[in-house]
Prior knowledge:
Blueprint: H1 2-20, E1 25-34, H2 41-51, E2 61-67, E3 70-73, E4 78-81, E5 100-102, E6 106-114
Parallel strand pairs: 1-2
Antiparallel strand pairs: 1-6, 3-4, 3-5
Helix pairs in contact: 1-2
Amino acid sequence: MHELSIAYNLVEVAEKAAIEAKAIRVQAVYLRLGMLTGIVKDALLFGYDVAVQGTLLEGSQLVVEELPVIVYCAVCKTETILPDIQHFRCSLCNTPTGDIRQGKELELASLEVVDEAPDS
């Protein structure tokens, strides 16, 4: 399960960013995940729950935005969403295309953090 190692790397990067922002806790991590990454979302979510233990991210939520595959068609001169990742063809004119504009992303988009202790 390579999702576990991806989760550990994600937590490491997010924790470093949180420390640099002087956060005391991370509430949520927002991730953009392209459909062509080969990453299984449920396995990543499970791996995340394991990887956050003992870090500033412990108890935080991983929010995954799944991105469809978007290709550019040179014939139509437009970008279209692939309805099926098994067939790289323009969904308007059915022309084969390999010009991928979206779908390979694995991007830490943002963090939701607590940056100071609540008043007692």
